[in-house]
Design brief:
heterotetramer, A alpha+beta (299), B mainly alpha (103), C mainly alpha (655), D mainly alpha (217), A: 299 residues, alpha+beta, Helix Hairpins, Immunoglobulin-like, 5-stranded mixed beta sheet, 11 strands, D: 217 residues, mainly alpha, Four Helix Bundle (Hemerythrin (Met), subunit A), 7 helices, 76% helix, 0% strand, binds heme-A, binds dinuclear copper ion, binds copper (II) ion
Chain lengths: 299, 103, 655, 217
């Protein structure tokens, strides 16, 4: 009696804390649950699926535990069955080898499908926008190879158009993450990898480095602004006409360790991204070469 | 079980055979490569197979793995270790070549 | 080198931060205190003879346990400092540099210098007794393992005081950890300390495999072995397979840093990702190294306190072996976001999830072991019970992380931090505490008082959920790990604050454990039965603590729960030695060489840390000398005469 | 016909065992000896994975030559050199095997002779390897020149360090054999160093194939 009331108060406490947590963060701040594009949405779907499928076993396990502990307590007068030699049951064991196998099978199948899908453009029939992303100590540099403009610590993208981010680092490895738009990928020195994202709602999205790069890492925040195509083009024109040039010297200064606010540039040294990748070891990476040739032909 | 190797105490036959085999395998691999006997891929396959045979020669003729006391748990573990050797090497190549499909 | 010397001298002693100065002062005071106490009570000889030179697995277990608890405290203080810094946005409690050092040392210490010695304490305390052996297969090597761990840990902790701590995370990814970005000595400390203790760990793996395969009492076939011993076997197999990989990863990075090679640099063709690859080939299996022994402990505890045979013994064995092998094939899930391609990611997603299958079987079998049993809620059992929901959740979130597409959203966020603390604390720490409470009487000869232990349990357990549940949500809100602070406008403040409160509750829980131990020491309640819990396996057939040869006569085993079966049949006396069956017992001699060898490694490590190659080489020469000394020692053993054994047994009331 | 245990076993350390395959070999004649040999196999298991990591790293970076010498260039110069190393080491494995064989015949004198020859061949191998390294360094192919070279020197050098340890260790055992004679303990010690030696041959065969042969392919 005394015991179970203690259990109850613990449960009540937990429930209270849980409720507090949920209300504390139930708005749009739970960014992973607020997808603003097809990639994040596809990932969220899998999150719901995995939550559901694991809940199917985990919740019964916890309930069963509670029931068994209450039922088979060693106290005088407990008349529940006591079978100290009950230690084998083929049927039971078959069941619990089988259930996880089935769940893992389903999740594995979906994973296979989605992993391949996410490596492609979300809308292959639309021409993508290409943005080259370079993580520096401790800032984000964005190049628009087709628009020939560059920005620091923010990027604008058109809505409803797939964006191919080509990622590299000049400095320690970081990761590019915009939770509302979809999952992250590493930016690695000497490598160029591709990440597809797309926004279908206009808005301003929080982005942050995903892999620790030293004392300035915490400040490596950036914005991704999604706006309709026409607004996007207007912004490009505005940067191209109004912003200063990025000279080679300017670039070298950006590479120096330090934090910065947002900047825009109306031009940048030709081929600087490709050159950086190659200098840092990209020439040994077969796929880098292919990727960059691909990029060059577009620009 | 009759020991395979020490059947004839008068002369270490098995050691001599093992030695001969290891020299032969080495020379085949060496001259196949320096003489460009085959195209790249088959050549690679041949020398890897020869290396595997060499390892077996060392294990069987010199380390006497056939005649240790049973149960031979050490050989099981050594075998699994060789398995992971291959896994770690091959998967490192697989992972590090980034076979990202390009658009 | 002259230049380097002058340069390092300036940075030699860490100065500036009041917290570090405080710690320095504390460390110096404690050391002086220890020296004083030892001198005052004339205990130096005793320390050397009984402890520093011992090769007895039971004493080595106690030293490991002490070290583990100390390191839990050190790592825990780190955690409290971090949580304090993160309680509110834009806190100025810790500087970024200091915060970086603290999470690095926290993670490294908790995993390598807390979890590892804790499991080794349990291995040493239990395995020889459970299988009816007089010691481990290689007692001398066992002592070497301990001293390598000890001096490795000492070297690592020294970084706090001399030269500066590593600050690139416990994962230590290059190129951030290459000289170009990290010129200080902190990273060298990390690399050398882990290398040294890693050698000891490999030796422990060798030792316990040999012990379990070769030293079992007659009649104890593999399928009659207690599940804890099975778990240790699996653990040691993993150790043999993956610790060498860590050694290589560390060595290569060290070669880069000390000799200017280019394995992982950005220039000259280095490939930093290969470090990450090697690190996780070790790193993932490492978490199973930590958790398998805990699983073994749960099996023992659940069965004992349900007074019931373990359910599905064969499945349990099969699942241990399955985890041992499959666990080595999943490592890429730590860097799905590297973009190695969908084929790679899919393969490793599925292999990772596959581990959930054998683990699930274990969970269900524990439940069924309790089902139709008689459950006693003693302290070990409480920790075991608290483990199950905790680990079910940790495992579930693990499976979520295992799917590459969703890992893209979870990776390196606080969601991940919450996952691994739930697995490491709910799985490993709870398991080790359960094991500590369970075998404490066997190790020390007295029981721990329950009262403060229960307080500790509730504070720690409730604190755990309060601390880490909010972190799952923080991760989904986009909060990254390894941020020393965060802006006020992100809506992260509330949850962080709650989490910090939880961390303090856990700290209080830990303090209660300390109080409990001290209280039980002062009001000692001796365990005269040798079997305080109604145990099932051989160790409970011995007095607490067992004499140093363990078994006067090696028992003959006929059943899985040998001791329990005997008790049921009223045949306990079968384990009392008959005087005529007692013969001379062959035991290894104590030796100071393992300690000296550890010291030589320490000197070498310290030398290389500061780039003093001569000191390093001298240390290594010392190591070689120790090895040669051992090889030349023709009489490392001695005999305990039968008469002396009879006297000891008689004094224990067993004749 | 193996040697009778009692002849060479003045005092043995533990209870003796009779195996299921006829007369027991000297090094396995005590439980302690059998356990130590088993333990050594476990050490070899860990060494397999140590080399696995080095090979994995080497194959990942061996094309990363940073405009320095390539494998083909470096090893193609002097293929006879690494062939000679290989033959020296293979022969030493053979002589080490003969030493074990003589031990099993109970002939301590010949055992010591073959051990001496093995040590000499080991030194020949090391001499060749050091000459090779010096030659390469002379061409500017230092460990600092490229990732490929870092990998090369570390992988091959780690094997070389193992051989060096092997030479020292075998000399120490040779000394013990001379000093204490052939008994269960020294037999076990030699058997273990012999296993180690053969294992180093296995590793070398892989280096020969993966580093040198593919290098000049
Ligand atoms: C003891 C420690 C421990 C344990 C046991 C585990 C167990 C598991 N872990 Fe965890 N993990 C860590 C410690 C641990 N982990 C650490 C420290 C890190 C991060 C390191 C760092 O980056 O610093 C990490 C990171 C980590 C990642 C990397 C994420 C990332 O970096 O983005 C992944 C991804 O797959 C993962 C998955 C898993 C899985 C699938 C299991 C499985 O083994 C879990 C299996 C258990 C269950 C599933 C529960 C019981 C089962 C049932 C009740 C049956 C049915 C269930 C289902 C079918 C779902 N872990
Ligand atoms: C077994 C391993 C283990 C254990 C037990 C813990 C225990 C704890 N950990 Fe740790 N943790 C890791 C392994 C572990 N951790 C690892 C591997 C990392 C990753 C590191 C990296 O990124 O490189 C990490 C990182 C990590 C972070 C993320 C840091 C970051 O990314 O910025 C945080 C933040 O909350 C945290 C918190 C805690 C807390 C509150 C505890 C608590 O459980 C601690 C409980 C406290 C004690 C046991 C000691 C009590 C102290 C006292 C009694 C003193 C009294 C003082 C006060 C009460 C103020 N840990
Ligand atoms: Cu017998 Cu070699
Ligand atoms: Cu993992």
């Amino acid at each position: 009696m005394h015991r179970s009331s203690r259990w109850k108060s613990i449960t009540a406490l937990m429930a209270g804390v849980g409720a507090a947590l949920l209300t504390a963060g139930c708005g749009e701040e739970i960014r992973v649950f607020q997808p603003a594009g097809p990639v994040a949405r596809s990932e969220l779907q899998l999150i719901w699926l995995q939550m559901g499928l694991t809940a199917v076993v985990i919740i019964p396990v916890i309930l069963l535990l509670a029931w068994i502990v209450i039922r088979y307590r060693n106290k005088p007068g407990n008349r529940a069955v006591y079978q100290p030699d009950f230690a084998e049951s083929r049927t039971l064991e078959f069941i619990w080898w089988a259930i996880p196998i089935v769940i893992v099978g389903i999740l594995g199948g979906v994973t296979l499908h989605k992993t391949y899908a996410l490596a492609q453009s979300p809308q292959p029939d639309k021409t993508p926008l290409k943005i080259e992303v370079m993580s520096l100590n401790w800032k984000w540099l964005f190049f628009y190879p087709d628009q020939k403009i560059a920005t620091v610590n923010y990027a604008e993208i058109p809505t409803d158009r797939p964006v191919q981010f080509v990622l590299t680092a000049n400095g320690p490895m970081n990761a590019f993450w915009v939770p509302n738009l979809g999952g992250m990928q590493y930016t690695m020195p000497g490598m160029a990898t591709s990440l597809w994202l797309q926004a279908d709602q206009a808005g301003e999205y929080y982005g942050h480095g995903g892999n620790f790069t030293g004392p300035g890492f915490t400040q490596m925040q950036f914005r991704v602004v999604a706006k309709p195509e026409s607004d996007f083009e207007a912004w490009v024109r505005q940067v191209a006409n109004g912003a200063p040039d990025m000279s080679r010297g300017e670039y070298d200064k950006l590479v120096q360790p330090g934090t910065l606010g947002e900047l825009s540039f109306s031009s940048y040294p030709d081929g600087i991204f490709e050159q950086t990748v190659m200098d840092e070891g990209g020439k040994y990476m077969e796929h880098d070469r292919k990727m960059l040739e691909n990029m060059m032909s577009h620009s | 079980m009759t020991p395979r190797v020490h059947a004839n105490p008068a002369f270490p036959w098995s050691h001599v055979i093992g030695f001969a085999l290891s020299i032969v395998f080495t020379l085949i691999a060496f001259f196949a490569v320096t003489g460009h006997a085959l195209a790249h891929r088959p050549l690679l396959a041949v020398i890897l197979v020869l290396a595997a045979l060499q390892i077996l020669v060392q294990l069987i003729f010199f380390m006497h793995v056939g005649q240790d006391q049973k149960p031979r748990y050490h050989l099981w573990l050594f075998g699994v270790a060789m398995f992971f050797f291959v896994v770690f090497v091959v998967s490192s190549i697989w992972i590090m070549t980034f076979n990202t499909p390009m658009s | 080198m002259g230049d380097g010397l002058a340069n390092t001298a300036g940075h030699f002693f860490v100065t500036g931060d009041p917290l570090i100065i405080g710690s320095d002062v504390a460390i110096v005071l404690v050391s002086l205190g220890i020296v004083f106490v030892l001198t005052y009570f004339k205990k130096w000889k005793w320390l050397w003879r009984e402890w520093l030179t011992t090769v007895d697995h039971k004493k080595i277990a106690i030293m490991y346990l002490l070290a583990a608890i100390l390191m839990l405290f050190r790592g825990g203080v780190d955690a409290e400092l971090m949580r304090t810094q993160l309680a509110l946005p834009n806190m100025k409690f810790l500087s970024p540099e200091h915060y970086d050092q603290i999470f690095t040392t926290h993670g490294t210490i908790m995993i390598l210098f807390m979890a590892m010695p804790f499991i080794f304490a349990m291995f040493n305390a239990v395995v020889p007794l459970q299988i009816g052996a007089r010691d481990v297969a290689f007692p001398y090597l066992n002592a070497i393992s301990f001293w390598l761990f000890f001096f490795g840990a000492l070297l690592f902790n020294l970084s706090f005081v001399i030269g500066g701590s590593p600050d690139a995370g416990w994962t230590s990814y290059p190129p951030l950890t290459e000289l170009q970005f990290d010129p200080g000595v902190g990273e060298n400390y990390y690399l050398l300390a882990l290398s040294i203790s890693g050698i000891g760990t490999i030796a422990t793996g060798v030792n316990f495999i040999a012990t379990i395969i070769k030293m079992r009492a007659p009649g104890m076939t593999l399928m009659k072995m207690p599940l804890f011993t099975w778990a240790v076997l699996g653990t040691c197999i993993i150790i043999l397979f993956v610790f060498p990989v860590l050694s290589v990863a560390l060595a290569l990075l060290l070669i880069d840093r000390l000799f200017g090679a280019h394995f992982f640099t950005m220039m000259y063709g280095g490939n930093p990702m290969q470090f990450i690859n090697l690190f996780w080939i070790w790193g993932h299996p490492e978490v199973y190294i930590a958790v398998l022994p805990a699983f073994g402990i749960y099996s023992e505890v659940v069965s004992t306190f349900s007074q019931k045979k373990i359910f599905g013994y064969k499945s349990m064995v099969a699942s241990i072996m399955a985890i041992t092998i499959i666990g080595n094939l999943t490592w890429v899930h730590h860097f799905f976001t590297m973009g190695a391609g969908p084929a790679v990611n899919t393969f490793f997603s599925i292999s990772t999830m596959a581990v959930a299958i054998p683990t699930g079987v274990k969970v269900f079998n524990w439940l069924m072991t309790m089902y139709r049993g008689r459950i006693t809620l003693s302290l070990p059992m409480m920790w075991a019970l608290a483990f199950i929901p905790n680990f079910a959740l940790a495992g579930a979130t693990g499976v979520w992380l295992a799917e590459a597409p969703t890992d893209y959203q979870y990776h390196n966020s606080y969601f991940l931090v919450a996952h691994f603390h739930q697995a490491l604390i709910g799985g490993v720490v709870y398991g080790m505490l359960a094991g500590m409470y369970y075998w404490w009487p066997k190790m020390f000869g007295f029981k721990l008082k329950e009262k403060y232990g229960k307080w500790a349990f509730w504070f720690f357990n409730v604190g755990f959920y309060v601390c880490f549940m909010p972190q799952y949500i923080l991760g989904l809100m986009g909060m990254q790990r390894r941020m020393y602070t965060y802006p006020a406008d992100m809506h992260w403040t509330g949850l962080n604050f709650v989490s910090t409160i939880g961390a303090y509750l856990m700290g209080i829980g830990f303090l209660f454990i300390a109080v409990q131990i001290i209280h039980s020491l002062l009001h000692m309640e001796k365990d005269l039965t040798g079997d305080p819990w109604g145990g099932r396996t051989l160790e409970w057939a011995l007095p607490s603590p067992p004499p140093h040869y363990n078994f006067a006569v090696i028992p003959h085993v006929t059943a899985r729960d040998e001791w329990w079966e005997r008790k049921r049949r009223g045949e306990q006396d079968a384990f009392l030695p008959r005087p005529e069956a007692i013969h001379d017992i062959h035991m290894p001699k104590n030796s100071g060489v393992p300690f000296l060898m550890g010291l030589c490694f320490f000197i070498a490590g310290f030398g290389f840390t500061f780039g003093w190659m001569v000191v390093g080489a001298l240390g290594l020469l010392g190591v070689l000398a120790c090895l040669a000394h051992r090889s030349l020692d023709q009489h490392p053993d001695h005999d305990i005469p039968a008469e002396e054994v009879r006297r000891t047994e008689a004094a224990l009331g067993r004749l | 016909m193996a040697v009778m245990m009692e002849e060479v076993l003045p005092k043995q350390a533990g209870p003796s065992r009779t195996g299921d395959n006829g007369p027991v070999r000297l090094e396995l004649s005590t439980a302690d000896g059998a356990t130590k040999i088993f333990g050594f196999w476990m050490f070899l298991v860990s060494d397999v994975l140590l080399f696995a990591s080095l090979f994995a790293t080497y194959v990942v970076i061996y094309t990363h030559t940073a405009d320095g010498p390539t494998a083909a260039h470096l090893f193609g110069h002097d293929t006879a050199g690494f062939l000679a190393e290989t033959l020296a080491l293979l022969t030493s494995s053979f002589t080490c095997g003969l030493a074990t064989w003589e031990m099993h015949q109970g002939r301590a004198g010949r055992l010591k002779m073959w051990m001496g020859i093995t040590i000499l061949l080991g030194l020949v191998f090391l001499g060749l390897e050091i000459t090779e390294f010096r030659d390469f360094v002379g061409q500017g192919a230092t460990m600092q020149a490229s990732a490929f070279l870092s990998g090369f020197y570390t992988l091959v050098g780690t094997h070389g360090a193992h051989v060096t340890m092997g030479v020292l260790w075998m000399s120490l055992i040779l000394y013990q054999l001379a000093r204490f004679g052939l008994n269960a303990v020294t037999a076990r010690k030699f058997f273990i160093v012999g296993l180690y030696w053969h294992f180093l041959d296995i590793v070398w065969v892989l280096i020969f194939t993966v580093v040198y042969l593919t290098g000049v392919m």
